[in-house]
């Protein structure tokens, strides 16, 4: 319900700029570190306080490129810990997620921006390295396409081995994409990490909303002499990826029927598989323009005859490594040179998995029962493996279960939620030496329990006799509480000296 209402709200609260423009994207725009709402180019940016509970807001008053970049949220450098934004989403919605970073200078003179990881739900997304952009005075943007697996989606930052100062973030955007966009990718198994998106032969400022209804960023790629066309007016409705019309209004071409070599993307790629979409539209009405396309000498498409209505060519999982060169070679007999209008390339990255739903319910119940849950109890509890929640241990393999919970001596206040009963793979439950009160809930569903430590708390109510039926139980510490009732004699016999209770219970 929260999800639906919030998204509706975002849609309604965006003021349309004019009737001829497409409706604003169904988007959630978060201005990290801000305390008030801002409307920029008719779009609403929310402060981040409803979406995150940790970190420090930093407001630096210097001239910046974009109003949202003047505040950031910064997080302490803590290895193995992630800091997560959690936002409401449509379950199974396909989202374009964009993070932006504009370094605020850190705390020390001449400090370089930190390098760290970004994570979506349980999956590693990419390393954030803003050093080069910072050197040029630019902001850095990262974009990916991810499928929501539940009613919320998390984007987290985590330190990695290169991190030497506090990770931070300036902006976070979630745009709901149409179902047909990038639909040749199986988003159940993979996500897309944007490498480059260009409008060829275009030398203006970046193309985005409202030209692109999903506010994707199309950068100018104006190599050689760009040929600005006579304004090809292509209907984009037939394109699954719904590229902006504007991309078809400029092109990169050559006058003679000779080969064109396009170094694209410009940066060397790591060895992986990539999703590639190339966009073309004929602007002359000519029908004799035919060419072959190769990528690093491998045939991508032969005898392409570009129609005036435009065409898009896709590759779902194209292996690439290092520098890439696209070559367009006119077919013999073609009287015109090749042309190209736009291109998108994404790395196909694996979905890292997700903690079992029952464990998510269990841990979120526990979190709600604690008045002061650990600061990092957001995002996926088990994944990525190297940044699971404080005190949580998990199983390996494809069915990720919570096997251990150890929050000994964390000064926890509050109660032990009955939802602990959902953690059915739990073998060790250690919550000793805290300030938990209330009664101990029914634990009889926790058939895997081996050790239970709830000592040194303020639990009251009856002794948890539900534990008597757990075969695997080897160790039970309940002393220094205020429980009533007697230990079942079967437990006494089974546990022997591994049973510790207050005198009134024995
Ligand atoms: C940032 O600080 C300036 C000056 O102190 C203040 O006017 C502005 O409202 C602050 N911005 C935010 C988003 O807190
Ligand atoms: C970050 O980027 C800079 C500039 O490109 C590079 O010199 C540096 O090695 C990178 N750092 C890491 C940890 O990759
Ligand atoms: C992608 O979406 C288009 C338009 O809805 C549809 O025609 C096509 O079959 C879809 N492709 C896949 C692989 O689902
Ligand atoms: C996606 O993952 C599932 C489970 O691992 C597997 O059965 C399926 O074949 C995968 N699909 C693709 C297209 O890789
Ligand atoms: C783009 O290219 C056209 C034609 O070469 C030129 O007239 C125009 O000034 C250029 N615009 C920019 C922003 O460089
Ligand atoms: C392009 O075509 C659309 C309808 O297909 C029309 O609304 C628009 O005005 C046209 N634009 C130009 C520049 O001709
Ligand atoms: C492509 O082929 C040309 C000649 O056929 C060769 O010189 C070049 O090294 C090849 N490039 C790649 C990336 O394989
Ligand atoms: C284009 O591809 C076709 C089909 O593979 C091939 O016969 C033709 O020689 C190629 N043309 C050029 C100019 O490479
Ligand atoms: C998970 O796998 C790692 C090595 O891949 C191993 O060290 C660890 O003990 C395993 N954990 C469990 C709970 O099986
Ligand atoms: C739980 O944490 C405490 C304190 O850090 C430690 O002494 C104990 O061995 C841990 N228990 C398990 C099962 O790891
Ligand atoms: C989770 O635990 C609660 C309380 O014990 C129970 O009502 C609910 O059915 C459980 N849900 C699942 C999915 O196990
Ligand atoms: C223990 O519980 C009894 C009633 O159940 C209460 O009277 C007493 O004050 C409690 N003692 C402590 C130390 O909380």
TrEMBL record:
- Give one GO molecular function term: protein serine/threonine kinase activity
In its UniProt entry, the species of origin is given as Helianthus annuus
Q: Which residues form the Malectin-like domain?
A: 30-348
EC supergroup of this enzyme: transferase
PROSITE patterns linked = LRR (PS51450)
Cite the Pfam families for this sequence: LRR_1, LRRNT_2, Malectin_like
Tell me if Transferase is a UniProt keyword of this record.
Answer: yes
**Which SUPFAM superfamilies has this protein been placed in?**
L domain-like (SSF52058)
Q: Which Gene3D superfamilies match?
A: Galactose-binding lectin (2.60.120.430), Ribonuclease Inhibitor (3.80.10.10)
Signal sequence span is 1-20
Q: What is the membrane topology here?
A: Single-pass membrane protein
Compartmental location: Membrane
Q: Which keywords does UniProt give here?
A: Kinase, Leucine-rich repeat, Membrane, Repeat, Serine/threonine-protein kinase, Signal, Transferase, Transmembrane, Transmembrane helix
One GO term of the cellular component aspect?
membrane
Residue stretches making up the Leucine-rich repeat-containing N-terminal plant-type domain:
358-395
Annotated protein name in UniProt: Non-specific serine/threonine protein kinase
Report the EC number(s), separated by commas if there are several.
2.7.11.1
């Amino acid at each position: 319900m929260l999800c639906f209402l919030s998204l509706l709200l975002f849609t309604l609260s965006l003021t349309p700029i004019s009737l001829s423009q497409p409706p604003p994207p169904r988007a959630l725009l978060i201005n990290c570190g801000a305390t008030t709402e801002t409307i920029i180019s008719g779009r609403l940016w929310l402060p981040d306080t409803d979406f995150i509970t940790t970190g420090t807001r930093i407001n630096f008053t210097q001239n910046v490129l974009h109003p949202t970049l003047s505040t950031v949220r910064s997080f302490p450098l803590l290895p193995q810990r992630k800091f997560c934004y959690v936002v409401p989403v449509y379950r199974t919605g396909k989202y374009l997620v964009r993070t932006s970073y504009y370094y605020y200078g850190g705390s020390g003179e001449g400090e370089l921006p930190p390098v760290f990881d970004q994570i979506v739900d349980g999956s590693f997304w990419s390393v954030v390295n803003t050093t080069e952009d910072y050197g040029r005075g630019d902001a850095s943007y990262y974009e990916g396409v991810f499928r929501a697996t539940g009613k919320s989606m998390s984007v987290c930052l985590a330190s990695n081995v290169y991190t030497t100062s506090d990770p931070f973030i300036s902006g976070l955007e979630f745009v709901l994409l149409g179902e047909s966009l990038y639909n040749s990718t199986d988003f159940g198994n993979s996500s897309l990490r944007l490498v480059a998106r260009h409008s060829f032969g275009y030398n203006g400022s970046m193309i985005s909303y409202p030209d692109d209804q999903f506010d994707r960023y199309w950068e100018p790629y104006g190599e050689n002499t760009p040929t600005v066309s006579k304004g090809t007016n292509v209907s984009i409705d037939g394109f699954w990826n719904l590229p902006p019309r504007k991309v078809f209004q400029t092109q990169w071409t050559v006058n003679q029927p000779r080969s064109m070599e396009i170094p694209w993307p410009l940066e060397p790629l790591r060895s992986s598989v990539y999703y590639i979409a190339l966009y073309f539209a004929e602007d002359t009405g000519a029908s004799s323009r035919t060419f072959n396309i190769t990528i690093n000498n491998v045939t991508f498409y032969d005898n392409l005859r570009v129609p005036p209505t435009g065409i898009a060519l896709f590759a779902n999982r194209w292996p690439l490594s290092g520098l890439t060169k696209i070559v367009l070679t006119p077919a013999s007999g073609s009287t015109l040179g090749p042309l190209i209008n736009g291109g998108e390339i994404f790395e196909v990255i694996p979905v890292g998995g997700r903690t079992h739903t029952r464990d998510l319910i269990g841990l979120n119940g526990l979190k709600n029962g604690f008045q002061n849950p650990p600061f990092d109890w957001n995002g996926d509890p088990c994944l990525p493996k190297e940044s699971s929640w404080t005190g949580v241990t998990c199983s390996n393999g494809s069915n990720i279960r919570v096997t251990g919970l150890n929050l000994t001596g964390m000064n926890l206040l509050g109660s032990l939620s009955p939802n602990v009963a959902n953690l059915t793979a739990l073998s060790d439950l250690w919550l000793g030496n805290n300030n938990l009160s209330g009664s101990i809930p029914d634990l009889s569903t926790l058939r895997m329990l081996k050790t239970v430590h709830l000592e040194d708390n303020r639990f009251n109510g009856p002794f948890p006799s539900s534990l008597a039926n757990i075969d695997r139980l080897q160790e039970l510490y309940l002393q220094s509480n205020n429980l009533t009732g007697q230990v079942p004699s079967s437990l006494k016999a089974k546990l022997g000296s591994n049973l510790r209770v207050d005198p009134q219970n024995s």
